[in-house]
Amino acid sequence: MTTSHTHPPEDAPARSPSPKRQVWWREFAAFWAFGLREYRIWQSYRVNQVLWMTNILVTTLLFFLLGKTIAGQAASLLGPAYGTNYMSFVVIGVTVNVFINTNLSDPYIRIQRSYFNGTMDLFLLSPMSIYTPLLGLMTKSILDDYPRLYFTFGFGMLSASSFYLLDIKKGTEPIQFVIQQLLATLLAGTYYPVTVLPKPLQWLACLIPHTYANDALRRLLDPGAQASVPVLPIQQAFPGVSPVLIDGGALVLFTVILLPLGILAYGWGIERARRNGTLTRWQ
After folding, report:
1. What is the rounded CA–CA span in Å between residue 190 and residue 210?
2. How far apart are the C-alpha atoms of 247 and 98, rounded to whole Å?
């Protein structure tokens, strides 16, 4: 006769977090550390904070006085789509221009600073994604300066990729120059409606996101604006579609096409620099 003996089950070992969760947590921790570092550096320069606020106030006052000067002619200059308040028209245009400009230039500036400080290779030798240092260094800017606009961030990533992919390490970066300083300055309608331009230039203005952002925000934020009146030639080509819907669709299209392309180009640039040994400047 056999006797069976029952043994109490052994305690199951504690489950460790999955490798995938550990990777995401490590990336987030590095991202947070970069952002906290940048924010503390910014906080240490109190004078710059005061000057930054002063510049905003002076610029706002300048356009307020300009709006008062041409208040009687605003209706004929702006047209029915944008209302009759030139002050709101130009403040929206300048705000959009500043936000987009910083989204275009910030990625390149961060990479350039890391390169000339000799820290880029240290960042990329760490066990984290090649994108974590770049995004982490820009975290402070998202919190205290301007939002991250994904419909133009693709241009910013393409600009950053040119640092290693095209070896443009000093001087004027061509993507920023063409998009921001050339096309956006002349065609986006920051200070005047796009309708004052010749028809071919109006169509050219439809190739940059600034134009759609200006048009949509002015229609949505100005109480006197008429959201259904087409202004841009692409809006006139689709008379049955809401102009705001066309603006939103165009911005989504910029995001879907340019953001993945910019991310890929930045990765190609990093790999090229690794192969050539040019990740950082040896001092």
Report:
1. 8
2. 19
Cβ atoms of 141 and 106 within 8 Å: the answer is yes
H helix and E strand count, the chain: 14, 0
CA dist list (Å): 69 to 58, 62, 91, 216: 17, 11, 15, 25
Contact 95, 147 (CB under 8 A): no
User: Exposed, middle or buried by CB within 10 Å (0-12, 13-18, 19+), for 72?
Assistant: exposed
pTM of the predicted model, to two decimals? 0.75
CA distance 92 to 186: 16
**Residues 187 and 197: beta-carbon distance below 8 Å:** yes
pLDDT tens-digit profile, the chain (283 residues): 455 555 555 554 545 555 555 666 666 676 667 667 666 766 676 777 677 678 777 777 776 676 666 555 555 667 777 776 777 788 888 888 888 888 888 888 888 888 887 777 777 777 777 777 777 766 655 444 555 566 677 888 888 888 888 888 887 888 888 988 889 888 988 888 898 899 999 999 999 999 999 999 988 888 778 888 888 999 999 988 999 999 999 999 998 998 899 889 988 988 888 888 877 776 4
Residue 33 CB neighbour total at 10 angstroms: 13
Angle at CA of residue 157, ends 151 and 162, nearest 5°: 140
- Hunting for tokens 């200006």 — which residue is that? 214
Show Cβ contacts of residue 209 under 8 Å, excluding neighbours closer than 6 positions: 100, 151, 152, 155, 250, 251, 254
Structure tokens at 166: 């095209």
